[in-house]
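Cont'd.
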Amino acid sequence: MVWLRIAFLSALARKGGLLIMVLSTAISVAILLGVFKIRDDTKTSFSNAISGVDLVVGAKGSPTELILYSVFHIGRATNTIAASYEKSLVAIKPVAWVVPVQLGDSFRGYPVVGTSVEFFTRIKAQGRHLELSEGKTLTDPTLFEVVLGANVAKNTQLKLGEQIAITHGSGTGPKQDHSNSPFRIVGILKPNGTPIDNAVFISTNAFDALHDIEEGGIQFAKLNPDSQVSAFYVGLKDRGSVFSVRRQIEALPNAGLMGVMPGVALDDLWSTMEVAENALLIISLGVLITTILGITATLLVSLENRRRELAIFRAIGAKPYQLLRLVLFEALFISLIGIALGWLMLQIMILLSTDYFRTSWGVVTSIGLPTTHDLLSLLALVIVVLICACIPAIKAYRMALNEELNPPST
Amino acid sequence: MRRSFLRLSSASLIGLVLGVNSPQGEATAYKEIEWDDLMPEGWRKKMILEVTRMRRYGSLMDGDPKADEAYARLKKAWDTAPPSKVYIGKAIRIPGYVVPLDAERMQSSEFLLVPYFGACIHSPPPPANQIILVKPPKSSKVRTMDAIWVEGILSEGRSYSEIGSSAYVLNADKITPYR
């Protein structure tokens, strides 16, 4: 394999230009894989967050908005509905369970979710039930207990048993602090890669109490007829009856309710976003094509500089096809090293930006091996590079020996 | 709905590279049926009669109690629509639109198959005997309102006693895009 060594040493002698080629390949590979990654992770982290829920019920309006707000805690607050509709929902025959969700308050910037004890047994994330890493879930709906999502606990460094205050509204300003509301941390959830990680859970009664504040501190109202919720999560005994249940929910007199099937709403969202998604893809493909053309051009130019070198190879007995092989291998190595480097760059970028994506977009990214889809695209890239590299390779193959060793005298 | 070109092409590429073809229906012959075949003949005639009779409400305004009552009666009839026994236990092949039941797309998430586009959004929903709960084979991934062919053994809905449930369950052997 002496020719491999020759190819390597020859490349080393021209490392400046080749390094730039490798870098440009790496960057375009990182962009392409990054677009794939963001697309896939957005979809999975959104759809994983709501497994086990058959219908999300809220005030009539935009289904996508309801899902985004009540499940992912992003976007505009939707209208609230009376908490008393829970009874009407449970009365619908195929309904197995109903979990209320109250939103609107925050704790140090993390959304506070007022919910029932059942939330922790019914809701799944990534197809699995919620698990505690410490403590217990909310058990007594009349206590100021709070359960923290994994990230909240990690980022605030709060421990089990500590007392905290919860802010009214979504701001972090001190004025609106319900400072005299002593919530005690009773549980911390295990991370599951969904918005649940970033939320703080209290009981619906405690949530109502926050809004019913009296001079001498907050107290649980005996009965709060005005209690409002943002949404109900509904699970069915029989999933085939979802249409009928939804119709019955929407037919409840004077309620103005809407039932949203999460899968349908998310698919709607994806098809809206498909335009942006495709634009991103086209841009990254454009970058990729530029890179491939760049590699070809650089190889062509370097061929001019290598006339002597190639001629010497011929003179010491290299066959034309061996020169062809030399150039093709150079292109292959550039693209392979570029791909490896690009993948590495992407992993580093992901590591650096995970927190940003999670907190501002609710998207969970993680480093990982390339998917089959990624590998196929990269394989396609290598093949295209090799095809394009045929142009300079064939040129090297055809270079006449005598012409090179005897440059026209000036 | 639309899929990005890349995803399609990569799927076909995998097929080419690995030499894998989707499993063809072995010895089983799937009988191609229509949605009308899933309505019991008697019930269907009754519904046609019912709807025809409703024509006389044509002059009523929206929100008229008489119209509301007639609508409620029809919806009840649709929710309790009985299944036809003709194809129960038979291998069938039927086209329809997908309504996903799960947000996450595991490889084998159940979904509903309905006869017309938009059935998941528009009210009223189709009659119970015009909804099939499909249990897909491992290798399928579908999205809302994808048009597909489903092949498999038809059985009666799990809990038909439950009002408004889909009257049928189909254990799908194969799912192919509708063309």
